[in-house]
Amino acid sequence: MIRPVLTEIGIFLIPFAVYVLFLIATRAGLLVPANWPLHLVAKLTVAALVLVIASLVLLAEFSGAPPHSTYVPAHIENGRLVPGVEK
After folding, report:
1. Which end of the chain has a smaller Cβ tally under 10 Å, C or N?
2. Which residues 6+ apart lie within 8 Å of 51 measured at CB?
3. What residues are paired with 80 via a beta bridge?
4. Is the pLDDT assigned to residue 16 strictly greater than 90?
């Protein structure tokens, strides 16, 4: 469960990381408040939310079991535990 959460946090941070790289490349002050105006931070946040929403939609659409598959839950056969599978 922690991996998907960390993945989404990482995706959220991508626009901010790109802007930090831009500030470093242009030799602008990274911690100077003038380089982080509110309207720019708002745009970066909107871009980050769009990326997260797109990644969640793609994750839901293209991961998981194939369509029309049937889940066979874990069960005991001949005294051994057989894990659940999708057929």
Report:
1. N
2. 11, 12, 14, 15
3. 77
4. yes
Interior angle at CA 44, CA 29 and CA 7, nearest 5: 105
How far apart (Å, rounded) are the C-alpha atoms in residues 30 and 38?
Answer: 15
Core vs surface per residue 52-80: b (16+ CB within 10 A) or e = beebeeeeeeeeeeeeeeeeeeeeeeeee
The model's pTM is 0.75
The backbone region for 59, taken as left when phi is positive above 0, alpha when psi lies in -120 to 50, beta otherwise, is alpha
pLDDT tens per residue across span 48-72: 999 999 999 999 889 888 888 999 9
Instruction: At 15, list the tokens.
Output: 């626009």
Question: In angstroms, rounded to a whole number, what is the distance separating the alpha carbons of residues 59 and 73?
Answer: 23
**Two structure tokens written together for 37:** 């105006």
